[in-house]
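Supplementary Methods. Inverse-folding protocol.

Structures were first reduced to a discrete structure-token string of length 323. This string, shown here, constituted the complete conditioning input.
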């Protein structure tokens, strides 16, 4: 089926074709990867963006996202704090510059913020922008006023994931809606932010849900599209989730589909990379052009030196010019 897609132009994949792509027989996976790789090379060349994540505000969230260790219904044992120390925040920022990495991502738990909290964040963004060119904040619902404060401080990009399909969303969260997420992203786009938005695979959703989420993302056209593969966290409602469907080949099909549907985006293999693609990084980087190093919000990951080694061993480059 993939060979039927017109690869001289970017493919226009229908919903039915997208579902077929997720059902690609494993013995045709190389062909699917080759189709995705053409687009990866066309738009991203040989480069892999490495991102470093700082959990700036951790735990005590009012929201009930089923996968999240920081949610109000999580009993997971995690560090909880309102602000990470400035020392840690600025150290991580300097680290991004020192290693010539692509972006410093700053995660904040919670969905609503006071104007004072946003001003505090803006103050720190101004300081960090002096050393690190590219920042992204993963932050809940902002008012327009708050978004403008962050824009004026120099914030380039905001992460706000869709997480799953519109139909499945109520199964993973009841305290806010999918539509609220879409509206927040649209407001941020109107203000000129770059958008990072993606989802989580392995929460019990169907293949149709995965396709529908990616089709919504095609409408949004985010600059970055992170795909997380569920790492069940004990103490969360998904702590015992059945992840047997998350085979390396299925995860690869999802990433290929993301590349085929939103070819110009940075397609990121985010949480789960070290588990579901262990030893398969060379194949993975043919499709994705963006990864995290040094861990996730509440899960450990691969350290920077090993991450760089994996990228260079696979024949890719990662460094960007520092400011
Ligand atoms: S994903 Fe974000 S909004 Fe949802 S519970 Fe976790 S920190 Fe809160």
């Amino acid at each position: 089926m993939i060979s039927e897609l017109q690869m001289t132009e970017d493919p226009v994949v229908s919903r039915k074709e997208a579902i077929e792509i997720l059902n690609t027989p494993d013995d045709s996976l190389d062909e699917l990867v080759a189709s995705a790789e053409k687009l990866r090379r066309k738009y991203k060349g040989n480069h892999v963006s490495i991102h470093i994540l700082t959990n700036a505000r951790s735990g005590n969230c009012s929201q009930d996202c089923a996968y999240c260790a920081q949610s109000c219904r999580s009993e997971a044992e995690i560090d909880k704090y309102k602000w990470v120390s400035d020392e840690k925040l600025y150290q991580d920022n300097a680290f991004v510059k020192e290693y010539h990495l692509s972006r410093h991502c700053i995660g904040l738990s919670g969905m609503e913020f006071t104007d004072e909290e946003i001003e505090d964040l803006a103050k720190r963004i101004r300081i960090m922008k002096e050393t690190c060119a590219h920042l992204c904040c993963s932050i809940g619902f902002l008012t327009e006023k708050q978004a403008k404060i962050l824009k004026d401080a120099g914030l380039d990009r905001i992460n706000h994931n869709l997480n799953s399909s519109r139909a499945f969303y109520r199964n993973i969260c009841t305290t806010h809606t999918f539509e609220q997420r879409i509206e927040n992203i649209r407001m941020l786009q109107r203000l000129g932010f770059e958008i990072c938005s993606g989802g989580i695979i392995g929460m019990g959703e169907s293949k149709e849900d995965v396709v529908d989420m990616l089709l919504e993302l095609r409408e949004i056209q985010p600059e970055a599209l992170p795909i997380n593969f569920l790492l069940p966290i004990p103490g969360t409602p998904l702590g015992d989730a059945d992840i047997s469907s998350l085979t390396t080949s299925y995860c690869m099909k999802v990433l290929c589909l993301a590349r085929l549907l939103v070819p110009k985006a940075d397609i990121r293999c985010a949480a789960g990379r070290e588990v579901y693609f262990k030893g398969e990084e060379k194949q993975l980087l043919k499709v994705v052009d963006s990864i995290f190093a040094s861990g996730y919000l509440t899960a450990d990951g691969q350290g920077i030196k090993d991450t760089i080694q994996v990228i260079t061993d696979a024949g890719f480059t990662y460094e960007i010019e520092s400011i």
